[in-house]
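Box 3.1 A note on notation
Throughout this textbook, protein chains are presented in two layers. The first layer is the amino acid sequence; the second is a token string describing backbone geometry. Keep the layers aligned when reading.
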Amino acid sequence: MVFLRLFLITLFISFPVKIWAEFEFNNRCQLALKEAFALRTASAATLLDEEKKANPANLVPLLVEDYLDFFTLFLGEGEKDYKNLRNNRDLRLRILEKEGTASPYALYCRAEIHLHWSLIRLKRGEWTGGATELNKAFRLLKENQQQYPAFLPNVKSLGLIHSVFGAVPPSMTWVTRLLDMEGTLDQGIAEIHTAFDGSLKQEPFAYLKEEAVLYLIFMEINNVYDKKRIEIFSRELQDKGIPDEARKRPLLAYAYATFLLKTGRNDEACKLLISFPKAGNQLPFYYLDYLTGICLLNKLDTNAAKYFRFYLSRYKGQSNIKSSWQHLAWIELLKGNREGYLRKMSTLQFFGKERVEADKQAEKEARGKIVPNLALLQARLLFDGGYYRQARNILSKPVFINMRATSADSLEYIYRLGRIEDEMGFENEAVRYYEKTIAAGIDQPFYYAGNACLMLGLLYEQKQQYTKAMAFYRQCLKIDSREYRNSIQNKARAGLARVEKKL
């Protein structure tokens, strides 16, 4: 099949396509893209073959085929697939580069292919190649926007790029200056909201809806601490029928379950994931199994182990491998098997790579060789699932309060109580614990003090006490913790930008 596709693409190159090429995102192409987002790649490929036979002048199938390669490589991370499919990128771009700009899709299709491969390469750790692809996508989209300012797909993709560059840590801003690229998370979110709304109102762009929703969900998760904003966004998703679609669409299921999990609705996330139908006619998507394990473990349900084991046995990529072993080790600890915990933490060092934050933290715990405090681990898991009262009950036990804790354990204990009180709406208690966390942890390598500053900044911003909010955001940016630094400080920078506009 790979050789057949390469042959067909080569045929395009061999003839003077510039004379007769066109871009028609017709119903068949839209259906093929919808099948691609359902990970039914074989069905999508069949539709594209039909389109190429019926309308050989149409170049839109090149873009949809690139989506198929993107999902295969981004989700599967297969090294063999990467070697087999990467030449497709060059062949497709060679065809599209022969086109002028008579259609807004000419530059857009090229930009999307570069954008797909930037994400693929960045996930593989190919930072220079990924940044170069992203820069090419950005340039093409800006040029296209100048010529076709009302072209909605441009807005969707520029929104993603602006969000990416708005999250670049200060240590890497030289890259954005070098590439002359800029953007903010809020700018990107606003643009993708525009694309999402437009996809519902403009029939020719209906195919943008699912992609825009996926981007929006993961971007809005960054605003999880703004409860009013999250509540509004959650209602918007409900009104647009996204929860119902998530029960049938695997990528939406993953995104919406993640949203539920991050907003303290762990039971709903579990129900969605466990009931999601397993289909044999789609690209394997083992992240759903990994996330199911996370949700179950947040309830302290040790049946989560089978989902992590399944993920490890089937997934051939590198992401979340170390994290899966870490969670299996935690399950051993919850069952009272300290030796089992140590064995699994030792094992994780031989598998996976430290590309995503979860794997970095798993490797760090394994190298530290310090067994987590059981009560703190239970409280952390319950808190992550939104079971705040249960988490507080665990931390309120006299046997825990009176124990001789290490400095790290004492700091986490104070911080966790602050987070619990905050989520339960006990503001004064939350402030007291956050301030104690900052005082005790400001010079520690842990993330607790930095995140406590961020939480206080957000709290005072929501109370419209902008001077206090600014002070805590600035303090957050000064704390050089080794854990989650980029994520925490990106949120602090965004908060600082917001409050500075209001003073």
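The domain at 2-233 is CATH 1.25.40 (Serine Threonine Protein Phosphatase 5, Tetratricopeptide repeat). The CA atoms of residues 38 and 249 lie 6 Å apart.
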